[in-house]
What we know:
The complex is a heterodimer of chains A (about 425) and B (about 450).
Chain A: H1 6-15, E1 36-49, E2 55-67, E3 80-85, H2 86-99, H3 127-145, H4 154-161, H5 166-172, H6 175-187, H7 197-245, H8 252-326, H9 334-342, H10 347-427
Helix pairs in contact in A: 2-6, 7-8, 8-10
Chain B: H1 2-5, H2 12-32, H3 51-64, E1 69-80, E2 85-95, E3 104-110, H4 111-124, H5 148-167, H6 175-182, H7 185-194, H8 198-214, H9 221-269, H10 276-350, H11 355-362, H12 367-460
Antiparallel strand pairs in B: 1-2, 2-3
Helix pairs in contact in B: 2-3, 2-12, 8-10, 9-10, 10-12, 11-12
Amino acid sequence: MADSGGPETAQLSSNDSKGEVGDVIPEEARSLLRKMEISVAEVEKRTGKNAVNMLETYTVYLIETRRVDSSAENQNFSPDSLWRRYSEFELLRNYLLVTYPFVIVPPLPEKRAEFVWHKLSADNMDPDFVERRRIGLENFLLRVASHPILSNDKIFYDFLTEENGWKEAVMETGFQPKADSRLKALNATFRVKNPDKRFTELKHYSDELQSVTSQLLRVRARVADRLYGVYKVHGNYGRVFSEWSAIEREMGDGLQSAGHHMDAYAASIDDILEEEENYADQLKEYLFYAEALKAVCRKHELLQYELETAAQDLMSKKQQREELVSGTVRTFSLKGMTSKLFGQETPEQREAKMRVLEEQIQEGEELVQEKKTECDEYVRNAWSDMERFKVQKDRDLREAMISYAVMQISLCKKGIQVWTNAKECFSKM
Amino acid sequence: MSSDLTAAGFPTPALTEEMLELDEDDDLEVFSKDVTLTDGSSVSASLPTSPSSMTNQYRFEEESDTRDIFVTVDNPESHVTALETFITYRVVTKTTRSDFDSCEFEVRRRYQDFLWLRDRVEETHPTLIVHPLPEKFVMKGMVERFNDDFIETRRKALHKFLCRIAEHSILSCNADFKIFLTAQAWELTSHKKQGPGLLSRMGDTVRAVAASVRGVKNRPEEFVAMQEYVDTFSQRMSSLDKVTQRIAKEIKEYLDDLKHYGPTYVLWSGSEEELVEPLKGVASCIDTCCQATEEQLSQMSNNLVPLLHEYVLCSDAIKAVLRRRDNIQTDYEAKCDILVSKQADREALTNTEDLSIVLGRLLGKVPEEARQQQEQRLHGQIEELKGEVEKLEDRVECANSALKGDWERWQSNMRGDVKAAFVSTAEKNVDYYEKCLAAWESFLTSMNADQSVEKSAGLTS
């Protein structure tokens, strides 16, 4: 696909990408999705040689894109497509994390099935798991494509459209070494004196969100497991009723048909719980979002720390200058000690030192200014994305709970039907 | 009072009508032989019952369409003595029967007393199907005997046991039953002692074992069919019992985990602002489901589980009845064998080449006299045996007809009980889902209402 459409959309969306709260126009209209339909249409298994020349089986996903022109009607563009592996998705995400550290980058679906409610679904090759992963990857792409900033990224665009040479292009951006240092920094321990209060609260919130969603997912999985047990045991009624009906004249028919309903009841739980997995996936997405949220807070702390360190250094340099000028030694320094031991230094030496200090102070002030600007800009951008995220999260989770309620209602209605039918069969015995 | 007795859920009048239709011919056949009920009924042991009066009484009871004796078991109380702790139950009887001194009786009985009654009734009516007593001990799931649920379950079972006897046209006339319902504690104790002693009971057991070893020769077709049915029925009931208990266990475990589920949503709401309403709403729905599940589980444990267990015990009771019937037939067949052999002996006597005659001659006895003595002795024995055989044959006929009559009755009771229990369970399950449905639907409504409120607020701002 030659037509990039990238710069144009960048032009259009950079002006109104503030993401104001209460903005009625959906973000999709301002972003890449206005120009393009994106989907992860198919999944296939491939076998090939890996980096160490060993045969491995892996899964690939078909990304389909289609030009959409909102102005013209009856446009019938044929879709373009290419295949990507999960690892390429991971590469894309890592690139985005490094390139836009102030953005709460959408998470990928889990690599391995966790919070499984049933031993069967722990298998990565399980078709249901693969299908849910396909949906998760599509969701990821749609989220990125509807983000006011991320959707303008060229590498992202190429990911969707350029099959060959994409990996090399990503590497050429030089993001990998930055990714490594970022990871190191995120894991380092340091103390920040004056963090932005909003970010402290945000970090606290992200910890709570992470903890509560993982607890919720765990309990939900256990409840699902138990419910599965309840329904399946009823299948035994089907078997025994059927066997019993053989020796009963009057009750035989009633027992037989009741037995059928019990079998149906037992079988119904599979679909019910499979659908509930979608709800679990929605919760999982926000569990992983919490991680992304934490990273943004952490980055702020890092920048703030660098600012404070630079400011601290500057202050100490200034103090040294003052001492040099006034001749008093207030701060302990090796030079001071040696000069005391070996005698005062010469005026020439002092002047040389002064010049060096002045230079350092000059550099220091520039650095502090730089860091301050960086920090302020970061805070502004990150907070803006945070507000966008908050609106999205509230909307998504609310809808998730509504759809959960809908699922429960469907489950209840099915239950009522089965037992009403069974009751009728029993009454006829 | 009467509502308690029809707890089984089937219409009593219809039941007895059915029984009448089937038993009419059999009863007439029995009574035309003009013998006493040789199964040892203590009521009519000395009085020969005339066919017409018995049948009339029968018909009168059934056609009157009203029950004239009602029994309830309630009010368990614990008694502590130096030696033991036990529970007594209040047994209240209301009756219009003329052979009762009063219309209302109230006594206290303990489990032992019920056991005694059951044994007596079984001895007196070996081939009638008596509803089983709850078990003496419950093996698993109960730690202490006097757990509240256990006592209540036992009380219900004891109540049903007595009700079934009271509803039975033959059993309700049993003398021991009457004493059980009316006697003071000390009266009952002394009456119990008068019963067949330990030795006689042991003798019965030995005979029974011997009979089962001998084996019955020509078991009538219908009883063969009955045996097959009971064997299969027993297996099915055991399976159902196990399945139901397993379901109850699974529901309990589900409930335990569900109780942790709701609170997690509440916990989450603590960190949120906009999401507080939906989160709390979901938590509240889940709590409603928890309550509904408790009720569902309770219904199952208190109704379906005990009922199925009762019928497992019933199967065992019927198997015992069939064994006893077989023993009665075996007794008869054994006596027949003896008679036949004695008759063969007599045949042999007419043959003059009998060795004992020769010996008699040698010993100097007059051959003719000896032979005549021998013949007379045998003749006496044979006549006696003939009488006994006739009695045993009648006993077999009685036993068979009693069982046949009771069989249909039992089947009808069983169908009624089973149907009622499963219908009730299905109803409860529908109720459970309806409660949960209502909770989730109201949550959905409130969510939609919020959204429309927000929308209108957005438009006006």
